[in-house]
Amino acid sequence: MLKIATSTVMRGNFIAAGRVELDTWFEGDILCSRLDIGRDGYVLGNITTRELYVEGQIVGNVHAGIVHLMDGAFVEGDVHHHVLSLHANASLMGTALRTTKMPFPQELLTLEAKAGGKPTSRFPVSVQRDLRAV
Fold first, then answer.
1. Which of 72, 79, 101, 113 has the greatest number of CB atoms lying within 10 Å of its CB?
2. In whole angstroms, how far apart are CA 57 and each of 81, 121, 123?
3. Do the beta carbons of residue 17 and residue 115 sit within 8 Å?
4. Residue 38: which of 25, 28, 48 has the closest Cα?
5. Cβ(58)–Cβ(47) below 8 Å
6. Cα(52)–Cα(84) distance, integer angstroms
7. pLDDT tens digits, residue range 65-120?
C-alpha cells in the first residue's frame, strides 16, 4: 500500500499495482488496482482502477469496476462502472454509465502479476475474466 499525505502536490501520470491512498492534490492520470481518495484528496485527471473509494474530489473521467462515492465526495466527469454506490451527501456532476465489461490496460495487468499473481479485486470469477480482456 502506498499512502500519499497532505501538503504534497503531485503532477504527472501514476501507475501502481495494489492499494493507493491519496490525501493530497494530484494533477494527472492515475492507473492502479485500488484507489482511496481521502477528504483532503483532489484529482484533476482521469482515473482507471478496479476499486475506487472517494471522500474528496475528482475532476475528470473515471473507469472503475467498483465505485464508492462516500459522504462529501464530489466528482465532475463521467463515471464508467460495474457497481456504483452513492452516499446521500455525495455529488456527481456527470454521467454514470454501467457496464458489464471493464477492460483494464495490459500495463496494470502486468504490474499486478509481478506484484503477487492475483489482481486485488472483489469481483466474482465470471466478471473477473471480462476485466482481463483488453
1. 79
2. 17, 23, 25
3. yes
4. 25
5. yes
6. 10
7. 999 999 999 999 999 999 999 999 999 999 999 988 777 888 888 888 888 755 44
Whole-structure pTM value: 0.82
Residues 6+ apart with CB under 8 A from 61: 46, 47, 77, 78, 79, 80, 94
Residue with the larger pLDDT of the pair 93 and 123: 93
Q: What is the pLDDT of residue 100?
A: 82
Q: Where does residue 12 rank: exposed (0-12), middle (13-18), buried (19+ CB within 10 A)?
A: exposed
Whether 5 and 23 have beta carbons less than 8 Å apart is answered as yes
128 in the Ramachandran plot: left (φ > 0), alpha (ψ -120 to 50) or beta? alpha
* 3-state secondary structure labels for all residues of 33-85: EEEEECCCCEEECCEEEEEEEECCEEECCEEEEEEEECCCCEEECCEEEEEEE
Looking from the CA of 21 toward its CB, the CA atoms found within 13 Å total 8
